[in-house]
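In this supplementary section we document a worked example of the pipeline. Step one takes a protein sequence of length 349 as its only input; no multiple sequence alignment statistics are reported here. Step two produces a three-dimensional model, which step three serialises into structure tokens for compact storage. The input and output of this example are shown verbatim.
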Amino acid sequence: MLLAQLFIPAATADDVQYLLHGDGGRLDWNDQSQQLVLDRPSASGYARLWTMDGDGQSLQCISCSNRRLPLKHHGNPAWHPGGKYIVFQAVDAELGGPLAKSSMHRLFTSPGSGVQNNIWIMTADGVRVWQITRLGKNEGVLHPHFSPDGTKLVWAQRISNEGGIGRWSIKLANFSVSGSEIAVSGIADLTPGQFLFYETHGFSPDGKSIIFTGMPPKGTCADFDIYTYNLETDSLKCLTNPSQRQWDEHAHFTPDGRHIVWMSSMGSGQSPAKMNQFQVKTDYWIMNADGTNKKQISFFNSPKAFSKQKRVICSDLAISGDGKYLFGYVQDPGTMTRPGSVVRLTIPD
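The serialised model returned by step three reads:
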């Protein structure tokens, strides 16, 4: 395990450690098992699911040997709160198309893009798996998450090629366990705000609201903003400022529900024209649950940072059950073609 510390102001996050350097991926934390689950590259170059503890030890692949799983990417895993199940995405090998053997197809269908991906669920030991969706050629899924009580499942689903990025919606389903079998039922289609693009990040701690990134029609990545949608009142709230035209994504509530941690290009000084996967720079921020009092808590792109990369993208994140630590997937250098690192940082009081 490689540990490194960033030179950042003591009043903010003063403890950043690299748990995996250059071979990490999207991740989630489970308080019951005290484990991270993450995707990271296998020898074939395709993402597989792994578990490890909060110090980066006991790294173990849980999807490498299950022959029922597709041969290409397995990614974007998230724990069931009880620690017995993991929901994730996997590429449908039957939807190859003319570019199936090209590097662009591997990127297009990667866990971060989600095209031609389906929702799967597996047991925590990787022994049993269930395929939940069976989508078509231009469809896909992103970022499935269980509700805090484990009875709901939410994900974003691509339904067409519209607008390049595709037209997406939010899917909300019931999840249940009977004996040794699971069931996903009653799938509802949600489009709060009538956006073109949705990316789901999970639920509020009380399970009443969904938190997600939305982008309006004719928008770009500079129009990614963080929203909450109350499932009981049908009320939609924007927590970031659309007029600032910045990249806001990967938002998660702290366990006490008082704050939200997310990634943002805010403060980077970049123009909206550079808000794309090949130029953007982001760091982690924290705000009150109502969107007020926004503060930057990581400084990977600061000239004083330990990392000497010209550009870093702080990406997917998870928060420990005590609210003390943020586990983050940091793309350093900021590129979609190379895996990034997994870091742990202390969330300031």
